[in-house]
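call fold(seq) -> tokens
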Amino acid sequence: MKTADVIVVGLGAVGAAALYQLARRGVKAIGIDRFAPPHDQGSSHGETRITRIGVGEGAPYPPLARRSHEIWRELEAETGADLLLQCGALILGPKGGRMHGREDFVGQTIDMARRFEVPHEVLDAGEIGARYPRLALAGDEAGYFEPGAGLVYPERCIAAQLQVARRLGAEIVTGETVTAVERVGAAARVTTNAGTYEAGQVVVTAGVWTPGLLGAPLKALAIQPQALHWFAAERPELYRADRFPVFIWMHGSGLDELFYGFPIPPGPALQAVKVATEAFGSIASPDGFDRSAPTDLAEDMFQRHVAGRLRGLRPGAVKSVRCLYTMSPDGDFVIDRLEDNGIILASACSGHGFKHSAAVGEMLAEAATDPGWVAPEAFRLGRF
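ret:
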């Protein structure tokens, strides 16, 4: 049996961040993952993720996004990796456009930016169209532009944090599937298909495997498949990151009347524009889920969202992949202790977690090392 001060179960976006932060504090920590992160089996892949500090999802989030930017810049200086590209973010839509269950998402984003002193611009449809003529607008859009926002590279962020965590003394175990997490006497025990581990605290950041692992307390969480698509541009230079921002575009008031996308990043990345929307169907378990993306998903994406809105993109995706994420009933995170039994939970990032993950990892390291830590009220499991 191996022992540690803290065990981290799952080394995706949040788990890698937590292990890194624990190692920075000199904590004896073990991280366990059934795959070899960064990998494409969970929620933390797909080459790029949007980041923004003016977060319309609500007041708990801007400080986390801001701190995550700071951590990624620190990691860049330490590792030499490019992790954060501040190409700007444009959020646009008609009044009443919804995102992550929030009404008037553009207006709420503006409110959060003002409250947290995030540099930004408020644009009307004419100003948006003049600045970004690749967008075919309806004319009723309001816009929010945040120049310091942009994208992060998820696989690179995970790899950098695990690299530094290992260098600082953390042990990383891959290829073992955790089958149980429980309290045994004074210790928290983690059982895998290959062995047993014990620690004073266990941090569970197993993503879509978390509900199956922890059972009844997480019955309210849903596992939702999502698809990501890349479409070629007739003139790729017009969609490069030095000329085009990340965007979230609500083109109606329905939950499914929106999509988001990315410019073509520099370097050897696929020279295509990545876009996605939100899907709300759920599955019972991630095990056995087919992560290949049928061509009809890409065709539907193009016809319902891209066609007539992004000029010069060609139908027929050059690449499509699927991922899974965990959604809470209210679209907010779940970060909490489980009945003070030495198990700390972070799950249900609800489709907007990666931008906050570096700071959430820092929060979890604090939770695992400070007996007096109390979860933020907005993230407590008991609200369900």
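The helical segments are 13-24, 62-79, 105-115, 125-131, 154-167, 210-214, 295-306, 357-369.
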